[in-house]
Batch of 4 targets.
Target 1
Amino acid sequence: MADSCDPFGEVRDVIRLLVVDDQELVRAGLRALVENTDDITVAGEARHGREALTQGRRLRPDLFLMDLKMPVMDGIAATAAIRTDPTLRDTPVLILTTFDDQDDVLGAVRAGATGYLLKDMEADALRAAVRTAAAGESPVTPSVAKQMMTQLARLSSRPNRSQELASLTDRERDILAHVGRGLSNEEIGRAFS
């Protein structure tokens, strides 16, 4: 983070963003939103993920503010590439998109996104989320958080493998062991006759 001075001469950290969106108007709007703050600045812009990687290596931002659906390289692929790039892997990626589809959310999280926001949020909430992500936390739009919690509950309600195996009879376990050894149904049948 870069330093700046407020009107009273105090030094403050400035969060340097790399705004990644294929729509010029969106990038300009985001730039205008942060120009009114003294602790966030736009260090650069990119039109797609591949350009974000190049700009990120050159500018070394504190945070990527990344759209999902873009040409050339989308936000999920770009986030995954950032996570594996030695010069960028520690830089948080905050997704800012119009898409709250469960597959998009899970894809972004799996790729290593720090947070997931929808573009319909208030300006103050976006600035707060940028500060939160830059501080190492994971801001998530409430509707997306609800989706994530529902998915987590669904996954945790499924029995785990040891519970499934424990519910098998001894004979079923023996049959399963024979299947694991590659025996055919006929060979398994002969083994139990």
Target 2
Amino acid sequence: MIQHILVAIDGSETSRKAARFAHDLAQQTHARITLLFVLEPPRMVAFGFLDSELITGDQHSPEDLEKIRRMLDELAADLPRAQVEKVVEIGRPADTIVEQADKLGADHIVVGARGLNAGGKWLLGSVSDRVIQHAGRPVTVVH
């Protein structure tokens, strides 16, 4: 029986569909839902011959975090407050999703088939594929 569903959210339309699917599943099973948004950390890349490093990736501003919180609030609006938790973590998306599922005791994961990477470009299934391979529990991929 499904008691706790972890839903990976990245702002893409497929992750919003995944949230709606998880919402319906939670209503049928009376499961709790955790909406998880993973921010990718900036990366250090070796640059040049002088052991220099270049930081790549987006820096996350307080405004970005507020937008994420508003989006999670919007997605959670139809669920009873006691039934939903909203979590924002920093890390590599697939690894963080699996780690949070373990940490929170989620017995089911729902992800979108394709999401957005940190630069806003479509990420073609690599996160969902990795989650499926490493989750150790059922994973539903929503198209």
Target 3
Amino acid sequence: MSDDAIDEDAPIFAIAAAAELAGMHAQTLRQYDRLGLVVPGRTQGGSRRYSLRHIRQLREVARMSAEGISLPAITRILELENEVAGLRREKRELEQRLRDELQQRPGARVFAAGATGAVVTLRHGARVRRATEIVLYRRPTDPAPADEPRATPPR
């Protein structure tokens, strides 16, 4: 994080300042806290402290309420938005892990079975000759499923 960046989750605003920034009465913020709608951080003494993210949520609640959406519905909308945000974060993290994993591999190698049964390494993009037989190994005690095609000898 750079020196100019602002931590949007830092609980820095007292209830009076948060109410003014959100354009609401402090009692409304207390009610939203009791309902679990917008739950601020707390100091060691128990005072509420709001972050910039909380202020944005309060403004969003006010907008939805003005449009006639009930408080239980707003609560559900906010829960779903938080869940979506979490899933997006998780998706980004998984995509980054996948990119990191792919970069650590020196190059994917492809293998094929030669006519004698030896393992043959193929270059990326190389084709296997038609005369090469590929056989799926199965232990002798395991019967092949009826719908699985059987390997046929080369022509």
Target 4
Amino acid sequence: MSDSDTWLIVGLGNPGPTYAGTRHNIGYLVVDELARRMGGSLKSHKSGRAEVLEGRLAPPGAPAPKVVLGRARGYMNESGGPVSTLAKFYSVDAAHIIAIHDELDIDFGTLRIKLGGGDNGHNGLKSMRASLGTGDFYRVRAGIGRPPGRQDPADFVLGNYSTVERKELPFQIDSAADAVECLIEKGLDETQQRFNR
């Protein structure tokens, strides 16, 4: 365990304009919102494997631990390497990592926050667990729901949000960003009580 109080917040997704608006990229969207709240934008990390923003998630003058927002430059199924690189660089152990990702088994617009667990077939989480050597990190799971009819889940997650969902999406992003702040400030129990509905 490191004695650092730095938090590493990772938005899982795929890089580039092709994937920007897809369900699989909710993690990127939440990290963008957190960056906006921190008053900055993500810049290339010296490793070249990720983009980062360092700062604090608190009103000016309020005490708050250091936060590093990150997103991998590679594809979802290779997220683990860049996350592991950032964790080593900033001396952050798994207990201070928060991964934000899409979740098929949760209804759209709903959040679930938890610590640890399996990867549930999610390639980003699978890669993170393999590279970090543990699954004991926090997850902010943003529900995208199950695909309609017989649509392949892989096509569904890489598809764009529906018109109706796009109207609701800003609220889900905002809520997920609030959950990240609550997790850092208040801990898991209170965050779950507030956001796991």
